[in-house]
Amino acid sequence: MKEIHHWIDGKEVKGTSGRFSDVYNPATGEVQARLSLITKAEMDDAIARAAKAQIAWGATNPQRRARVMMAFVGLINRDMDKLAEVLSSEHGKTFPDAKGDIQRGLEVIEFCIGAPHLLKGDFTDSAGPGIDMYSMRQPLGVVAGITPFNFPAMIPLWKMGPALSAGNAMILKPSERDPSVPLMLAKLLQEAGLPDGVLQVVNGDKESVDAILDSEVIQAVGFVGSTPIAQYIYERAAATGKRAQCFGGAKNHMIIMPDADLDQAADALVGAGFGAAGERCMAISVAVPVGDKTADALIEKLIPRIEKLKVGPWTAGNDIDYGPVVTKAAKENILRLIQTGVDQGAELVVDGRDFNLQGYEDGFFVGPHLFDRVTPDMDIYKTEIFGPVLSTVRAATYEDAIKLAMDHEYGNGTAIYTRDGDTARDFANRINIGMVGINVPIPVPLAYHTFGGWKKSGFGDLNQHGPDAFRFYTRTKTVTARWPSGIKEGGEFNFKAMD
């Protein structure tokens, strides 16, 4: 059985805990590897080594650090297919979706090549008599990233790119469900010229997370996962004086106005609702058609599209629409929630509960599901299902529709489909949600903007990637300098106002 280890000081290091986590092939249900879980002592040692390596890395000028990112971009492109194959085999994503996962992370690394510009401070000369003032952005030291299973390349890249470009060392703890791609990325960074020890990849469970949170050396932690854990990490990190940037769950609504192009809206809902088997924090899981006429027409267009979806393993070819969910437990939870929807009175228009893929009976495949006439009191509406399930909540008016999205506890992403610019503008201005799409179903910002949700989807003041990431991973130092020229003799005992 293959064993997966840690990446410490530029080499693979076998753990000594004797504790392991199974890594599955989601398509077959078989265990394909064992992952060594780190001990607290090993974690503390990795953090100490990172702190030692960070000193020289932080003193390296930003342009040289950016050159490492530039080389890293080339190496990711070189190994794109290899990375995608490993990602698909551990996560279950289709091959094109796996490449998309890597590509969206790669774009953040491309943005990080511009780090020297983003790290520039401000300067004011002659702020007072003979006085100059300037600010510097300096690295925090050692920071940590705790990343989820659903984007095993993209989110680690979102964390490590800005953190390392800003001169920090990073402790990366990826998901134990699909850990291989982060280790491969660490090796590529070494090949790109990153000094050993500046990036440590450690594998573990809650014990390792708590070791990160309790460390006095780690200055900041970035997390993506479920809301309860995001809130736990945010609160515990804050209690120990760390910066925290924690992103949680989602229940993303897409409002379909009567004037929308319903074919376009239906295509968007199918892609955004069922891509990656719904295991996306930016998946559209709630369709909100305005008016029964709109709803009836939309459902009529959705049914044949959803029934035609091809579900299968990534090895079956690029025309597969989505693959298995990540674990057996995830599959069981999705099916349990679907049953609660039926029990609570929702209309199951497309029923994928009997889905069975010949030759892959033990895989974690879930057929596509479409609910109609879902109401806000139902569990399938309140809960993030994280599976191939689309719920339709009918709204009588635009005001009713927007209220649904605004009243939900999650505020990650949302979208509206309309031909009316006034409605779209009103929606974008009023909605209390972090990322908004107008005739765009999954409004993930490009790398030079920032990604982040509101309400219980995000904890912390600064978002991921874009300029916010460099603000998060640096702190500002302001210097007031006065030189001898023109200084009068004698001390001054009052704080002198600027002339």
> At the third CATH level, what is the topology name of the largest domain?
Aldehyde Dehydrogenase, Chain A, domain 1
Flag low-confidence runs. Answer: none
**Oligomeric grouping of the chains:** single chain
**From the coordinates shown, what is the CATH architecture of the largest domain?**
3-Layer(aba) Sandwich
Which structural category do the helix and sheet elements fall into?
A: alpha/beta
Give the CA-CA distance, first to last residue. 74 Å
Largest sheet: 7 strands, mixed
Rg over C-alpha atoms, rounded to the nearest angstrom = 25 Å
Give me the count of strands: 23
The side-by-side strand order for the widest beta sheet comes to 15-16-17-14-13-19-20
Count the domains: 2
The CATH homologous superfamily of the largest domain is termed Aldehyde Dehydrogenase, Chain A, domain 1
- Beta-strand content: 15-25%
Kindly state the mean pLDDT as a whole number? 95
- The top-level CATH class of the largest domain is Alpha Beta
How many DSSP H or I helices?
Answer: 16
EC number: 1.2.1.27
Protein name: methylmalonate-semialdehyde dehydrogenase (CoA acylating)
Keywords: NAD, Oxidoreductase
Pfam families: Aldedh
